[in-house]
């Protein structure tokens, strides 16, 4: 088993092409508590709010403090995002070259990862809910981008259902100055 950080294993040589703050974030190992700010636009319809609650997706907030707990080991990472309105926990695992699985509540999402211009993007490939495959025609449109700006790890993530509209969209940054590590 490799001792390389999870995303370095997934991306291979493409890892070096990422913006420096993105590389730093995805090189962290062990437990880290990071802080930053984010804005969240949540679902505006009842079905969307139900889905968001089931998955632990955050509700609407504007430019709020944000805390992120990372438990990173070479074989998996646990991400706990502490939004002011809700806490969202997921487990990420490698599925092979450029493929990642994220377990989020009762859903398991599979993504392909790509790098472009220093940024990392994730594209949804499959969904399972309670272990059952989700029909592709019901897939939400999902976007997830990571980049670096002024030494910060920046993110822009969202999902919308074709028939019902937005489920969630959140963007912001994390400061990744970790004590004892060079900037």
Features:
ten-stranded antiparallel beta barrel; 183 residues; single chain; 11 strands; globular; 3 helices; mainly beta; Lipocalin
Describe the protein in words.
- By secondary structure, the chain is mostly beta strands.
- The chain has a single domain (6-175), classed as Lipocalin (Beta Barrel), CATH 2.40.128.
- 13% of the residues lie in helices and 56% in strands.
- A 10-stranded antiparallel β-barrel has the order 1-2-3-4-5-6-7-9-10-11.
- It is globular, with a radius of gyration of 16 Å.
- The two termini are 29 Å apart.
- The mean pLDDT is 91.
CATH class: Mainly Beta
Proportion in helices = 10-25%
- Please tell me the CATH architecture by its name: Beta Barrel
Count of separate DSSP helical elements = 3
H/E series, N to C?
HHEHEEEEEEEEEE
Shape: globular
Question: What's the short story on this structure?
Answer:
This protein is mainly β and 183 residues long. Helices cover 13% and strands 56% of the residues. It starts with 5 loop residues before the first helix and ends in an 8-residue tail after the last strand.
Topology of helices and strands:
Elements: H1 6-11, H2 20-27, E1 30-42, H3 46-55, E2 61-73, E3 76-82, E4 87-96, E5 99-104, E6 107-116, E7 119-129, E8 132-133, E9 141-149, E10 152-161, E11 165-175
Antiparallel strand pairs: 1-2, 1-11, 2-3, 3-4, 4-5, 5-6, 6-7, 7-8, 7-9, 9-10, 10-11
């Amino acid at each position: 088993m490799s001792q390389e950080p999870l995303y370095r294993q997934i991306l291979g040589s493409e890892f070096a092409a990422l913006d420096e703050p993105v590389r730093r974030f995805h090189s962290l190992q062990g437990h880290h508590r990071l802080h930053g700010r984010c804005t969240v636009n949540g679902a505006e319809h009842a079905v969307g709010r139900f889905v968001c609650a089931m998955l632990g997706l955050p509700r609407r907030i504007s430019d709020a403090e944000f805390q992120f707990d990372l438990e990173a080991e070479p074989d998996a990472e646990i991400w706990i995002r502490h939004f002011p309105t809700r806490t969202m926990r997921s487990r990420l695992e490698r599925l092979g070259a450029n493929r990642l699985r994220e377990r989020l509540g009762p859903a398991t999402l599979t993504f392909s990862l790509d790098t472009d211009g220093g940024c990392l993007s994730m594209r949804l490939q499959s969904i399972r809910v309670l272990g059952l495959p989700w029909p592709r025609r019901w897939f939400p449109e999902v976007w997830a981008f990571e980049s670096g700006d002024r030494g910060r790890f920046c993110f822009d993530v969202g999902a919308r259902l074709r028939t019902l509209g937005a489920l969630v969209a959140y963007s912001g940054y994390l400061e990744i100055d970790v004590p004892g590590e060079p900037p």
